[in-house]
Design a protein that fits this description.
The chain is mainly α and 216 residues long. The chain has helices at residues 2-25, 34-75, 89-123, 129-173, 200-210.
Amino acid sequence: MRKYLVLFGVGGLGLMSAQVAVSLGLHPDGRPALGQLLIQVTGLITGTAVLATGMLGAAEAYAKAAASLAPLLSERQLRTDLEIAIRDHQGLRHRSRGFWGAYARAGYGVGAFLAVFLLLSALLADQGYVVYVAALAIGVLVCGGAVAGTGFSSLRTLARAHREVAASVAVAEAQPMAAPEPPAALPTRKGAIRRAPASPVLRVLENRRGRPSRRR
């Protein structure tokens, strides 16, 4: 999980840095040379690939750990004095909600940063280059600082949730199997099953069979 979170963070920072460089080059007075433009586009592509690799890897690692823990919570005997971070399905659901919430915040933060810089580039394209650069610098300080703080907190939440689930899997696997519950006894009452009343025709036939035959 750690390597995926590192890729997550490095890819996000690389993608945002490349977006800032591209935004600086979108102004008519600051268009870069073809070589610099290719480097910037390469940075966008590389940052996106690294970010996607980290996000997919982190999601897969947590999903596998949670899928391994879910059946163990029902199959293994977890004593009350056992030191385990997650001991029931409710606790696992709570960790999963925290993980996926932090996962979404981290991804949305990077997307919001890119959207803000695209919007600034479109709105300030007619302004002077100095004003344009100053606006982008303020955007980096404000929006970039907020995204970086939220992203760092989200990555810590992801790491903690996965660590607790993985540790709980290791502890639960070492415990004995839980004793099967005895099947519930079906309630029985004397005379609960009664014979259905016979029809008049059947009663007549039964009476005739029970009478002795007459000899002529």
